[in-house]
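Model the whole thing, not chain by chain.
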Amino acid sequence: MSEQTPGIYLDNNATTMVAPEVVEAMLPFFTEQFGNPSSIHRYGDRVGRALRTARAQVAALLGATHDSEIIFTSCGTESDATAILSALRAQPERREIITTEVEHPAVLSLCDQLAKEGYVIHRLGVDGHGRLDLDAYRALLTERVAIVSVMWANNETGTLFPVEEMAEMARAAGVMFHTDAVQAVGKLPIALADSAIDMLSLSGHKLHAAKGVGVLYVRRNTRFRPLLRGGHQERGRRAGTENSAGIVGLGLACELAGAALEHERTTVRALRDRLERGILTAVPHCFVTGDPDNRLPNTSNIAFEFIEGESILLLLNRHGIAASSGSACSSGSLEPSHVMRAMGIPLTAAHGTIRFSLSRYNSAAEIDRAVDTLVPVIEQLRRLSPYWGEDGPLGDAQTPGFSPAYA
Amino acid sequence: MWDYSEQVQDHFFNPRNAGPVQDANGVGEVGSLACGDALRLSLRVDPEREVILEAGFQTFGCGSAIASSSALTEIIKGMTLDQALTVTNQDIADVLGGLPAEKMHCSVMGREALQAAIANYRGERWEDDDHAEGALVCKCFGVDAGMIEETVRANGLDSVTAVTHYTKAGGGCSACHEEIEEIIARVNPTAVAVQAPRAPEPPQPAAPRVNTLQRIRRIERLIDTLRPELQRDHGDLELVDVDGRTVYVSLKGACAGCQMASLTLSGIQERLSAELGEPLRVIPAAPQQIAC
Ligand SMILES: Cc1ncc(COP(=O)(O)O)c(C=O)c1O
Ligand code: FES
């Protein structure tokens, strides 16, 4: 990419640009507003007030009843871990967890570790469109379950899970319910007061706030055990001096996101659809993964057959376009992403999935340039592929005309 | 995200010899869609002099898989087949200015496709090992789960320190220690971590077969030919035993941090497998003796 070409950022599910207004709001908290909010003097007092405002702004976006239900943390991962470990410690007689196969590693790796420590982990599978079987879920809800942790929106495909309904089912069975809403907050309207959701995680850097700040919502009267004990910050539920600049920025980012929800639902969705249609029309042998009718308005995950994701990304990057891939090639394991495997994406395509995730900062011109760039990139890589002939795949899709010494 | 050298980028963005060679008389295919990478290498060989006149590649894979294929074709053009057979995956990595540990398998794929293509030209069948290496555990030294498991099993290892002495795994940043501990617990459940490393028990040799002795002698001779090179690097190598396709060796290195290709077990394994024409697993049967 030449230095002059402006980049096109289509990787907003990985992280977002900090909104300029948010940067502006944060800056004083690195300079004159450096006080410790716990201090009694005026240096601390002003910061304390700013945190109260931020807490109210977050509570408003989530539709929470009380500001005190908002606990600031350091990231989405910390919020997820706090929720799950709290439920286990508060209910030591309950030794089971219900989650899904397609959660973020923040939940899955923690559950793997808990399994080693003797907890029983139920990981709900998904169908070819990434959907859950609610009857299977219902059958697992017993008094042995400490917590259900199910993501609101999948970070790779954008597919939405019916968490409000699942939370009602958990409540009816007397089981605590947590949702990792890191990808959903700011993209969809959320009304926690009217729901049965007990705990919810969000992360600042996914909604145009800074990295290193997150929130765990804990409904009033939910039994809770802190992850970090120490000072009385966050009413003793999360010790450690507050990241005041980050929290103030997150508060404003939530207010901006709330105001932009309608824009997200209409304009961003239209841009995403334009991108998707452009690609599907121009490129043969590719398809949308996940549940196209029930997903985040900003996300499109497209599987390109017979080529590998990392090489697509490298060529796109050269033209200034940033996206991401479900390919795990860089981990050395050569396994496609756990989400693609869980959905049973065919082998011809599982290594060639690309996620495009938009934001309110993208324009129609950018989308058109992205499509125009992508089409020749795909053609170029297919010309290199041993599975691709003059003008199409060799052999039929499942058994290409390629017979290596091992399979 | 991408720790690729300029040479890797150059070969990826401007691949040399992409596409099949016209009138190829040797074609090698390795990998699969399931593995996430695959390579078809086609050669036109001058039958008189056995010289590679042209080489072309078609690759499905990541950036370094494509770059490794491109580099391979440049290396082997103009070589005789016998010269080409001595090309190692490290040679490919060297031309590329090195590859990240997670991506070394891409260069291995290149070397395997070359062997397959030459075997195809000569009308032989080429057999690869089963690629059941498992995930990379130690990124500092590029050691996979299979190597650690077999070394723990063969030597009854019971601590991370012992695994480091045998395989180097865990001797760097130490981020992989938890995973190594888990492998030890799984493979050697009776392991007591505080126990001093035991003397290695010689593994039981396989039931004698007709040509077992000859085969062992060949391995021994090959190891002897590798030794001067290792001794130059202040290392050494001894054959301890051969059990089926597993070759037990004792490896002495000059320095734990030394990443000399010739000193790595996978390098030795590759040379032995290539020269014997069968997939072999080289497992250390004694701790690596490390000077510093
Ligand atoms: C669904 C989901 N959960 C959790 C996280 C982790 O958030 P953080 O990076 O703030 O720890 C992410 C970020 O990638 C995510 O997409
Ligand atoms: S990863 Fe094994 S020592 Fe660094």
